[in-house]
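ping. complex inputs:
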Amino acid sequence: MANRWRNTLTTADVTPEAMFLNRRQVMAGAAAMGLGLTAAPLRAATGLEPNSYEDITSYNNYYEFGTGKEDPARNAGQLTTDPWTIKIDGLVEKPGDYVLSDLIPQMTTEERIYRFRCVEAWSMVVPWNGFELADLLDLVGVKPEAQYVAFETLYRPEEMPGTRFPVLDWPYREGLRLDEARHPLTLLATGIYGKPMPNQNGAPIRLVVPWKYGFKYIKSITRITLTDKQPKTSWNMANAREYGFYSNVNPQVDHPRWSQATERRIGGGLFARREPTLMFNGYDEVASLYEAMDLRKNF
Amino acid sequence: MIQQINSRVRQIPNWALYLLGAVPVVWLYVQGFQNALGPDPVDAIEHRLGLWALWLLIAGLCISPIQRNTPLRLLKLRRPIGVLAFMYVLVHFLTWLVLDVQIPSQIWADIVKRPYVTVGMVAMLLLLPLALTSNDWSIRKLGSKWRQLHWLVYPAVILAAIHMILQAKGFQLEPMIYLVVVLVLVGVRRTPLYLRR
Ligand code: HEM
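pong. complex structure:
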């Protein structure tokens, strides 16, 4: 793990009283999960505070549980996430059904505090716990012909009331180019605030790609397929004009429904001011992945 | 029973209806100030006011078919319902403008570039002259033109339902149901059932 991505935001950046409690929960939760987080060194505040656990777990887009923001928190409780297996297939050396509880001990789980930017022009800051997708790809062995990674969400209508109507063409699908998937920023997250991933946030395991819009962060992953063709992705299938395959956060390329130049930080109350949206959501280190590309065409 | 309802309705003073109609919007904003609407109060208020506006417009469309086909006499409620519907549209719009979009240059860009906003805007502008002429003086003054003018409520409500469909993401059932209800209520005015009596 030579050049792993280094976190510049830690919970130590956070001082308000409300967060103090949460921080204690983080430590307790982390200890319980055996994550062994060491005390982060105190740094000057960066101005970015993670949203509260409450915010992050009560304001979700997870259409398998309903299209309202409160629906997932209300309806996802019944989801069975244990046992959980991920089918890994396609252009890999070791295809198979991987049991999550066997997989996690083999991975390096760490805390990553990332900005989260939804395509609907709102944003949060989330302290994820997870491991780099690249590590999993190394474990299963990617064949040289592979160029893309396709993902699928669980589709289980008995437990997912939102899937009884074809809001989208279920199961939910997402995809990344292999170099995006291998980028050290890209995580498979298994928790938030040191606690196991809540169902409404995509338990037990979801993707996190912080320089892309939130709908790329596919939840409750049951299948990962390495391919040589660009995979189909759900929102692109539903409306190709509005949702591109790449969907990188880009303040210069407007979505037909929302200007992407600014965003509203969730948790700021009734009078929160809009803030400028940053290219690649502020993660400039990914710019080199797209050097030769017209990001207006490949939105 | 019906007689009782009719006489009760006749007795309700208009100011009481307006007061009652203001309760949801005031309550929403009180909750918003108290941070009791979840992590994103702006979104919550915007959406619920949109729904209230549409419910009131639909309620307004129900009055005249009820008047013609049942012994219930609710016509007196139509004006307060209509004026309140417009108030909800206006506060829905102002919430979007002041608390959501905020930035003046972006407001105009959104109105011309985002079809769901454009359609909502047209619906609101169609309702404006109706709200302004919902008084006895205008009815007297405009004579037969008043009826012609208030015919605009039909395209306005249809556009409002289309606005709801356009703002929904993916293929959703609820906005379709609203559009069907609206189309039935407008369509019924062209059927013999409605022209009877
Ligand atoms: C007759 C006029 C209007 C009616 C009846 C109406 C009604 C609605 C309804 C029912 C919704 C969906 C609420 C939900 O499903 O939760 C909605 C959403 C919305 N409306 Fe309107 N509306 C009207 C005019 C306008 C105008 C003039 C604007 C702004 C210029 C506007 C901006 C919005 C916005 C921003 C949303 C939310 C979209 C989103 O969250 O993506 N509406 N409206």
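Chain B has a mean pLDDT of 94.
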